[in-house]
Structures are given as structure tokens and as C-alpha cells.
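It would be a great kindness if you could assist me with a short task in structural biology. A protein sequence and the C-alpha cells that stand for its backbone fold form the material at issue. I should value your view on which stretches of the chain appear to form regular backbone elements. The record follows directly beneath this note.
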Amino acid sequence: MTSRDFSIIINKADVMLSIFSFAIAMFFITGFRLFPEYAQIAWIFLGYQLAGWVGIIVEELLLSSRTKNDAIRIYNSEPDLEYWLNVVTIGLLVFVGIIVAQVITFSLDLSISTFQDLNVIDRLFGFLAGDSEEVFFRGLLLRWTLRALQAVDTSSAFQLIMVIVAVIINSTIFAVMHVFVYGQDFSKIFAVFVSTIPICAGYLASRSMTSSRIGHIILNAGLRVVI
């Protein structure tokens, strides 16, 4: 068995989602007087987007000059319907997986008051948060971790172990970053850790940021569940 392919497939949806996230971030940053509670955090998510894409592009430039396998595969033409159905289906499964993770960790609040509190601004910010986190934590960090582990041992016997370790590392980092959101509420932080597992699984299954972005955006912008 050959070593697992950890390349990422970039499509037009990935570019469009990031452009929309950039526009949302600038909306909050330039309107800081109207949205002071969102403006500073918008800078962080803008940084996630920029750092994620810069890292992805730099990795592509470095690896393409050293190996025959590209780190990034870009569709030069429109992907077919089967591709999009696969990406969207996995994205919806990611969303369902996150909901299940939230339920089993007793963290999901879908009361009527939760939906009544939602407004356009909250949904836009939820979109920005979910999308930007996926570009950085899955599009960049998860793949970097997988490639680093692959460099240590590429034998088939350890491939599954490498993937599991990479997912655990990524979920841990992502959960720890949410200390800034939940403070010392470790039950919430653990819920983030568990919820990150289906996100990573969706990314690995499709080798596309689009799937994990779909699931995360629906959760953050649709239900305003913050992970």
C-alpha cells in the first residue's frame, strides 16, 4: 500500500467563501463604532483566513518543486455534478456529526429563545467565524500535521494511527483556542474537542475545505452554536 494522499482540492467555492468572509470581516472592522464587540475578533478571523491561504500557497510552492505530488490540486474547469454532490453531502454529514457530538456532551441548546436572539449580524459573524477557522485549522494545520506524521513513518501499518493522532492533535489545539471563548468552562471546551472530530473526518473524506466549511458555517451561522 502506498502512503496516503494528503493533498487538498481547491475549487471555486473555496475562493468565493473566503472572498465573502473577507468582505464580512472588513464590514465589522470598518464599522467598529457600530459593532465594537465584533470588530476586534473580526481581525483574528481575518488573520486566520490570510494565514491559512498563505500557508497553503507556500506549501504548494515548496512541495511542487520537490515532489511530483502537489499539495494543492486546483480545478481548472468546473467540477462535475458528482463532485459537488459528494462535497455537499459530506458537508451536511459534518453538520449532523457536530450536532451528535454536541448532544452527547450535553452542550446543545436549541431552545426557542436561542433562535429568537438570532439576527443578521449574528449570522454574518457566525459565517465569518466558522469559515475562517476551517481555512486555518483544517485547510492548513490538519494537513501540515498529517504530512509531518507521514514523514516520520509512511508504512501502511501506521497510516490509520497517523490519521487518528493528527485528528486528536488538531481537535486539542482547536479546543484549547476556545478557552478564550469559554474561559474555564471545561465542559464546553471538551464539547468543542469532540465536535471537531467529525469536522476533521469530513475534511479527510472529501480532501476539500468546502465540506468542513459547509458543516461549520451551517452550525455557527444557522444555529449560532459556537465551536
User: Anything to note?
Assistant: Residues 43 and 54 are 16 Å apart (CA to CA). The chain has one domain: 8-223. The first strand starts at residue 8 and ends at 10. Residues 120-152 form the longest helix (33 residues).
